[in-house]
Design goal:
Distance between the termini: 35 Å
GO molecular function: serine-type carboxypeptidase activity
Mean pLDDT: 93
Shape: globular
Number of domains: 2
CATH class of the largest domain: Alpha Beta
Low-confidence stretches: 1-31
CATH superfamily of the largest domain: Alpha/Beta hydrolase fold, catalytic domain
Radius of gyration: 23 Å
Pfam families: Peptidase_S10
Keywords: Carboxypeptidase, Glycoprotein, Hydrolase, Protease, Signal
Protein name: Carboxypeptidase C (Cathepsin A)
CATH topology of the largest domain: Rossmann fold
Order of helices and strands: EHEEEEHEEEEHEHEHHHHHHHEEHHEHEH
Helix content: 25-40%
Structural class: alpha/beta
InterPro entries: AB_hydrolase_fold, Peptidase_S10
Length: 509
């Protein structure tokens, strides 16, 4: 888990003109600051509003989409950066005091909110096949699973991602590009956004994917402590380690359930294991990991030869990697090596962020794949779609490049206490609930480490009734698989409804 997560965060019919969002002159005149002619610089403040309608759970949901920028201010009130956002607001709701607001981030840390916006929760999603692979012609379609029926949503692109840009060159990168700097300035920006759109009364939720989970975990306490803004929920999609230490035997062992899930998917295990369903098989591996594998690794060279061989045989049985190689690696199989080795004899590598994806290397030898098969597939499908959507459907006109991955320098990861910050925010706020979503085939932010986060955040079990976890039969962006798009959004919908208090329900223990 102690590796750069610069990958992510952290994602067919032609529709009629009537279904497409159209520019609303009346709304634009009332709410929008007009854009200047397209250019390759960013206005600190701009917006354009369009209208749309989507059918969710057999109900028509009308909405407006505001694509625009709001400033990041310095201490003297000078705009030093412009943050691009897309805000979806359901328009047939009169009272927003009880209407939840979801604030959405992706990760990287240098990537934009594109992935969840047009892959997961938004009212419009990109066209891909049922398993998440690119198809042509590129384009967009309505998302019948969007959570817009139960919550308004704003998708936020941090500085130097998407269309967001630093505006003042002499402001040091340390103002933006680090765990704690990122949290501080984004909390200020959220305060501005909530004030501009009159959402202080609304129940509020943060959702982050991949590195975005560290972002929102830290924001929960920052907003609460320094902006006096209290949340109802934090949603962690494919979470990172959240600054929770796991070294030595623990770090080595916790990877095994992910290895087992991937090997099962590719039918690389023995017949007796393959005939079991995935969710029936994995608890067996998890129990071995906790009860036998970690203690054995902790023994180091004091373990007996017989016990060492017994453990190696079980690791090989569950991982699909030979017993000889398990021993050669001293039980600590590097994930990079696993992605190369598991299907080496078949001539394929497996994806880092989603092991269902296959890659082709120049040669079968070596210790790691030539490229991330899943990431290049996702960039293939998402990049044209987001550019078409923002520029053509949402009418945001600019010649700026949309940064799928932006220049954020050497990210300062020191003093990452985001997991502990989230625990503290929960302890101080009885309203605050946490929901975790993981894909079984995610090798960068694996599902068992996500569970470990929860266990270590709350070792005394005082918060466990407000923490929940769900797993899906896909990878890092579980929502790209059609079946999981439906179930994962439904789980979000249920979480929001469950954690929004009834009128008059006090926040107290």
């Amino acid at each position: 888990m102690k590796k750069s997560l610069l990958s992510l965060a952290l994602c067919c019919s032609i529709i009629s003109f009537a279904q497409r969002p159209v520019v609303s002159d009346s709304v634009a005149a009332r709410n929008d600051k007009p854009q200047s002619a397209p250019k390759r610089t960013l206005d600190a403040e701009s917006s354009v509003t369009t209208k749309g309608e989507v059918t969710i759970k057999n109900q028509k949901v009308p909405y407006k989409a505001i694509a625009g920028t709001l400033p990041v201010w310095d201490d003297d009130g000078k705009a030093i950066a412009g943050i691009f956002y897309t805000y979806y607001e359901r328009t047939d709701v009169n009272d927003r005091t009880t209407r939840p607001l979801v604030i959405s981030f992706n990760g990287g840390p240098g990537t934009a909110s594109v992935w969840m916006q047009i892959g997961y929760t938004g009212p419009r999603i990109l066209k891909i096949d049922d398993e998440g692979y690119p198809v042509q012609p590129y384009g967009m379609k309505d998302n019948p699973h969007s959570i817009l029926d139960v919550a308004d949503i704003v998708y936020v692109d941090p500085v130097n991602t998407g269309f967001s840009r630093q505006l003042v060159k002499d402001v040091p990168g340390s103002k933006f590009y680090g765990v704690n700097a990122d949290i501080r300035y984004l909390a200020e920006w959220i305060n501005t956004f909530v004030s501009r759109y009159n959402r202080w009364a609304s129940p509020k939720y943060l959702i982050g994917e991949s590195y975005g989970t560290a972002r929102v975990a830290g924001l929960a306490l920052e907003l609460q402590s320094n902006h006096w803004m209290y949340l109802n929920g934090v949603i962690l999609v494919s979470p990172t380690d959240l600054g929770i230490e796991r070294d030595g035997p623990v770090a080595a062992a916790l990877k095994l359930p992910y290895f087992a899930a991937t090997a099962w998917y590719h039918k690389a295990l023995s017949a007796d294991l393959q005939k079991k369903d995935l969710t029936a098989f994995l608890p067996e591996v998890e129990q071995f990991t906790i009860n036998e594998f970690i203690p054995a690794l902790a023994m180091g060279h004091t373990i007996s030869d017989a016990k060492k061989k017994e453990i190696a045989a079980k690791v090989a049985r569950y991982s699909g990697i030979s017993e000889k190689e398990v021993l050669q690696q001293n039980f600590d199989i590097p994930t990079n090596y696993f992605w190369k080795e598991l299907l080496r004899d078949r001539g394929y590598t497996v994806g880092r962020l989603d092991s269902r994806y296959l890659g082709l290397d120049k040669k079968d030898g070596g210790d790691g794949p030539d490229f991330n098969a899943e990431l290049t597939s996702w960039l293939h499908s998402f990049t044209p779609a987001i550019n078409m959507y923002l520029r053509e459907e949402l009418k945001y006109k600019t010649d700026l490049k949309y940064y799928m991955f932006g220049p954020v320098g050497q990210w300062d990861r020191t003093n990452n206490r985001t997991g502990e910050n989230l625990r503290a925010a929960m302890a101080q706020n009885p309203y605050l609930h946490v929901f975790v979503q993981s894909g079984y085939y995610d090798g960068a932010c694996d599902y068992f480490n996500a569970k470990y986060n929860m266990w270590q955040m709350d070792p005394g079990g005082k918060l466990k009734d407000r923490m929940s976890w769900e797993g899906y039969r896909s990878g890092h962006m579980m929502y790209l698989r059609k079946e999981d798009l439906s179930t994962s959004n439904e789980h979000l919908r249920e979480f929001i409804k469950k954690s929004t208090p009834k009128p008059g329900q006090p926040a107290k223990y």
